[in-house]
Automatic annotation (TrEMBL):
Transmembrane segments: none annotated. InterPro entries: Amidohydro-rel, Metal_Hydrolase. CDD domains: metallo-dependent_hydrolases. It comes from the Bacteria. Pfam families: Amidohydro_2. It comes from Amycolatopsis carbonis. Residues 55-250 form the Amidohydrolase-related domain. This is Amidohydrolase family protein. GO terms for molecular function: hydrolase activity.
Length: 278
């Protein structure tokens, strides 16, 4: 296979945390604290391009915000790396999001990352001012807004889909994990993802964490409908994901023909390649 672009991996090491009422643990054992460690991983994998996102997962947004400058520095050190900035829809995080958005014009920054796992929801009026500001910044700097999806609660595709309806006419929106589980996969591949594309929405996705049947079904739907081939990206979600497993899963489905070229390379360049004029 030719060179690979990874549209979603994390940088930064999180502290141990007592998830789900258990003892403090640090499950993301492949976390990287330094840029040199990240570059070593890229060299070992043969990954030619990547989008690096501040690591998050413990319920303290300040930790995720603290990795923004490290990701920007990584993008400055090696042109294989594009950076995403951690931003938040929560009013409590407004000052920290404002500071993060000041970095949006840096040459290596190509995305703004938000997740409702740490609070807020797309339909909450209290989040609207922050969401408006985040998407306005994305439009101003031609950035992608990268949003976590998972079944249920604030990250469910029914809820996150409100962002597509509200903002994706004139801003690019990357739905991470293709809904994140059975219900999201069926809602999206069963029609909603393609309906959005047909309606002119600038919506993209990746299949990290996608379960069993989903990649095969999505590839067949893309072929049958004749759209969507340029809206799906390869993503490892390292260290929360599994690079080798994700690569094998998608390679088996899309191969290295035209669809594989979009998934593994060209769509990444459209979304996360160098800014125009740079």
């Amino acid at each position: 296979m030719r060179w690979i672009a990874d549209a979603h991996r994390h940088l930064g090491v999180l502290p141990a945390y007592p998830f789900y009422g258990g003892p403090p643990v640090a499950p993301a054992i492949g976390s990287r604290a330094t840029i040199d460690e990240l570059l070593s991983d890229l060299d070992r994998e043969g990954t030619e391009r990547t989008l690096v996102i501040p690591n998050y997962g413990v319920p303290d947004p300040e930790i995720a915000f603290s990795f923004n400058e490290l990701c920007v520095e990584a993008s400055e050190k090696d042109d294989r790396i594009a950076a995403a900035l951690w931003v938040s829809p929560r009013s409590e995080d407004a000052a920290r999001t404002d500071q993060a958005l000041k970095l949006a014009g840096e040459p290596g920054v190509r995305a703004l990352k938000l997740s409702f796992l740490l609070g807020g929801r797309a339909s909450d009026p209290a989040c609207k001012p922050q969401l408006d500001k985040i998407f306005a910044t994305a439009r101003e700097h031609d950035l992608v807004v990268h949003v976590h999806t998972s079944p249920g609660a604030a990250s469910d595709v029914d809820e996150v889909g409100k962002l597509v309806d509200e903002y994706a006419d004139d801003a690019k929106l990357h739905l991470v994990h293709f809904g994140g589980g059975m219900s999201g996969h069926i809602k999206l591949a069963g029609g909603r993802f393609f309906d959005w594309i047909a309606a002119g929405k600038q919506v993209y996705t990746d299949l990290s964490w996608a379960i069993g049947f989903t990649p095969r079904w999505l590839a067949e739907e893309i072929s049958r409908r004749g759209i969507g081939h340029d809206r799906v990206l390869f993503a490892s979600d390292q260290p929360w994901g599994d690079y080798e497993g994700e690569l094998a899963k998608l390679t088996a489905v899309v191969g290295d023909g035209e669809l594989g070229d979009h998934v593994f390379r060209s769509t990444f360049e459209v979304l996360y390649g160098p800014k125009k004029g740079k």
